[in-house]
Amino acid sequence: MGKTIAEKIFSLHAGEDVHAGDLVVAQLDFVMGQDGTAPLAINSFHEMGGRGVFDPSRVAFVIDHSAPSPNEGVSSLHRLMREFASEKKILLYDIGCGVCHQLVPEQGHVVPGDLVVGADSHTCTYGAINAFSTGVGSTDLAAAMISGKLWFKVPDSIKFICSGVLPEGVFSKDLILFLIGEMTADGATYLSAEFSGDAVKALEVEERFTISNMAIEMGAKAGLMEYDEKVEKWVKSHSTRPANPVFPDPDAGYEEVRQYDVSRLEPRVALPHTVDNVSPVKDVEGQEIQQAFIGTCTNGRISDLRTAANILKGQKVSPSVRLIVAPASREVYLEAMKDGSLQTLVEAGAAFVTPGCGPCVGTHNGVPSDGEHVISTANRNFKGRMGNSRAFIYLASPATVAASALTGKITDPRSYLQK
Amino acid sequence: MLLSGKSFKFGNDVNTDYIISGKYKFKTLDMNELARHVMEDLDPDFYNKISEGDMIVAGTNFGCGSSREQAPLAIKHAGISCVIATSFARIFYRNAINTGLPVVECDTSQIEEGDELEVDLAEGLVFNRGRGLEIPVKPLPPSMIRILADGGLIKHFQKHGDFKFD
Ligand code: SF4
After folding, report:
1. A171 and A34, same domain (yes or no)
2. What is the pTM of this model?
3. Is the ipTM of this complex over 0.95?
4. Quick one: pLDDT at residue A340?
5. At what angle do helices A138-147 and B153-160 cross, to 10 degrees?
6. B97 by DSSP, 3-state: which?
7. Of A137, A149, A190, the CB nearest to B67
8. Testing the interface with A: which of B16, B91, B103 to mutate, by most A Cβ within 10 A?
9. Which domain covers residue A156, as residue numbers?
């Protein structure tokens, strides 16, 4: 029988012919830790007797979750990371560089065919450029830094074939929210998800990252996509490393194949307090909001800021709403300066915060108050996610978030997009 | 590796908060202290009932929820020798092997509370002694058994400085 993308990447990195269910020790191409997970991994690293890392150019720490530091406790963990990074000569992306999952592909550290681990559950993001990347715990991160290898169980795969053309005003975020609603939060546990079909092919690479990023929200281990000219072009403009594209065999074995026609899909929103609690936006239209957030590793890219700027151009955010924007990286920030989206958004009333995770994980930069309703472009809306378990979080596309910021209520963006 | 002990039976979707409640896991890094509260919300007296070597037996999706390594560590420090479940949540499964807690996937419908069990990890067999039943499981590959026998990934690295499976 043929092989899936996951089976091929693991075969290449294990140096033997492997199939779903096999346990392997595989070579890693890149290893990442962030300020929520790296400090513990540094402890494990020392406990394991680690001296150097396997290849300093293939290990990065990113200070993005609480950046700049909001308090002394975090400051000392950041210092620990900086000291470790300078001692071991690994890459360090300090405050202001951006979110880890934006930086790893943008800075050219991952290319098609790679096997990557990160101590962060949304490491699955890089599946959009045909790399197998997945989240691990702190002990795994330590072992990976020392040896450049990890053990894996080669996963079974589930394939999503999305055909048709996404209607105007409906985005990749709406598509992945829809699929998560169909699958539920654990519907793809253990599995490697492969997203394919004309509707996916039609998306730009930036938009594809949004889908792979949220594969974990249906429990998947990875969110893989096929290699094509768009990926080729995107990767060439970000990395000098050679790509090693991997295609699934036509007779590859899947645990399940699901087909969807997306031509009539409407904007979607995930309601509090779970990501799989998904409804069409029209079912909750009119729900008042007090805060809107555009950013994160899901939707903080330049195309997302442009979409928001398109809706808010020449307008003012509702006086009852605070609009917070966190560009996913410094490069995104600079792009937004150059093309004017930054000015448009600031004139509309947006408060920009440092490139990084922003208020996504609730450590700082916009913690909502009791009973407040927040609409966000992030990937998780669990109770307490933004730092207050008595607040309510809705997840939607940047267009829906911008339109909602404009009206003060959850709003279908389709009539607000300007030409 | 040969293990034996009696079974404690649980249902499906035992999440990491049931295994060790969030209110304890952030308070201390002392695993023996955490172990006293293992499975407390499902059975307040659980810790006191355990004899060294006993096993947790459960249904599907055991260990779902957060990726904290405290969950398998608390089970291990409570004296449990292995967890047998129909299926495991992915990150729990990894963390269990990395922290040295054997995990076995098999059909658990033929195991009841209190059954005397023997588990042969290398052969891939669960033997239900009281009922004279052999339940087949996929044997763990030698590499995983090696990590488990060393007591987890940290100890494995202390000993070998790398993954060492030959
Ligand atoms: S932006 Fe949010 S989801 Fe993404 S890495 Fe940061 S905290 Fe995690």
Report:
1. yes
2. 0.90
3. no
4. 98
5. 20
6. helix
7. A137
8. B91
9. 5-243+253-260
